[in-house]
Specification:
about 400 residues, alpha/beta, OB fold (Dihydrolipoamide Acetyltransferase, E2P), Rossmann fold, 3 domains, 8-stranded mixed sheet, 6-stranded mixed sheet
């Protein structure tokens, strides 16, 4: 790949900034800032667009700061987009990115402030971190959009209890993935190892290693006084304050009263299902739908003391909503980044008793797409918030409230 000199413009989806080369082709450049003149190394080329990394800064923006992590930057760990940007400016870029998607996809002219959560430093907030392992057995992170590895001794985004494990002090099986999680309520973190199918390892030694680390096999956390058990590998919000922050936002948006009937789509381990069930009480219902059977088992454990709440193992689609959503008055969904199944959205709209929906999303593009479909179906947007739960990246968590 060749190098090219560019002047950078505004932020772009993917964690970079927009530029144009001498031919007018759009180039999305990571590790730069608006107004900077850079030497960029092209990393991916197409006839009408390309990707690149800024490898030399010829004219520096006043917004540029020293990255707090030594592994951030071009050709290094690809997990962070904005380590070279102050935290307030990061939120400004996210506001612009969300506004662009709302305007272009949802047809809404809105700018939503991205709210700080916690102390706002952007470091030490991640409760789950996934590492790779190099051919030499060293802990590593992957380059951006690549399987190439950057050896590291820690992740600056990890909560202290994960950093304190000292995972870099062990020789790990080459080619493995090592994931550490600590949700705050457990006695110790969990560490799981996903091995390459060709790996030759000493299983007894790995087990002994995890035992020496004091690891446990299930995470326990407390959200607003409620205890949740989260099995290994089951999705849970990654920011240490995300669960409590989002529960507050969702419950505020739903405006539940006793007797309401709530449908929680993509319910995971039952975070919103349990919170909603407590609000509607025994005269109401709360039903979670989730495709992951492991997550459903966790949700059922977390709902066991609330007989009017349940979790269903099923894909979120028109059929599951028609089967389990009859009579629902409220719905909440927090889908993966691909967004909500279109048939599921249509099925939600078809529930005549449904009067309020809360949409939670970490992807601005699919959030705007799903929002547009509901608006076209006659729903009204009554509130929207953006929460900075993914510091150092382009992503924010967006919560929208709709009613009819």
């Amino acid at each position: 790949m060749s190098n090219v000199e560019l002047v950078l413009g505004g932020p772009a989806a993917g964690g970079g900034f927009v530029a144009h080369d001498d031919t007018g082709r759009v180039v999305f450049v990571r590790h730069g800032l608006p107004g900077e003149r850079v030497v960029a190394e092209l990393t991916e080329e197409h006839p009408t667009w390309a990707r690149a990394d800024a490898i030399e800064i010829l004219e520096t923006s006043d917004l540029r700061v020293a990255a707090p992590c030594p592994y951030a930057g071009a050709g290094r760990c690809g997990g962070c987009d904005y380590q070279h940007v102050g935290i307030d400016e990061q939120r400004g870029f996210k506001r612009l990115l969300l506004a662009e998607q709302l305007r272009r996809v949802a047809g809404l002219d809105l700018e939503v402030d991205v709210e700080a959560v916690g102390d706002g430093t952007g470091l030490g907030t991640r409760t789950r971190v996934r590492f790779g392992v190099t051919a030499d057995g060293d802990l590593a992170m992957r380059h951006h959009r690549s399987h190439e590895l950057q050896a590291v001794d820690r992740c600056a985004l990890a909560v202290d209890r994960i950093s304190a494990l000292g995972l870099s002090g062990f020789d790990w099986p080459p080619g493995a993935d090592v994931e550490a999680a600590w949700l705050g309520g457990s006695a110790a973190p969990t560490v799981t190892i996903e091995l390459d199918e060709d790996a030759i390892v000493d299983a007894e030694e790995i087990g002994s290693r995890l035992e020496r680390l004091g690891c446990v096999h299930e995470q326990v956390t407390v959200v607003d006084g409620q205890t949740y058990r989260v099995p290994m590998g089951v999705f849970w919000q990654v920011h240490e304050l995300a669960a409590s922050t989002l529960v507050g936002a969702v419950l505020t948006g739903l405006e539940l009263v006793p007797g309401d009937r709530v449908l929680d789509l993509y319910c995971g381990a039952g975070l919103f299902t349990r919170a909603a069930a407590l609000r509607v009480g025994s005269t109401g219902t709360a039903v979670g739908i989730e495709a992951s059977r492991a997550a459903v088992e966790g949700a059922r454990t977390n709902l066991a003391d609330l007989p009017w709440a349940s979790a269903v193992a099923s894909r979120v689609d028109a059929r599951s909503i028609a089967r389990h959503g009859a009579g629902a008055t409220h719905a909440v969904f927090d889908p993966p980044r691909r967004g909500v199944d279109r048939g599921a959205l249509a099925a939600l709209d078809a529930i005549s008793s449904l009067r309020r929906i809360v949409s939670v999303s970490c992807d601005a593009a699919t959030f705007a797409r799903d929002l547009r479909m509901l608006l076209d179906a006659g729903w009204s947007l009554v509130g929207i918030r953006a929460l900075d739960l993914f510091e150092m990246t382009e992503h924010a968590e967006t919560v929208a409230v709709l009613e009819r």
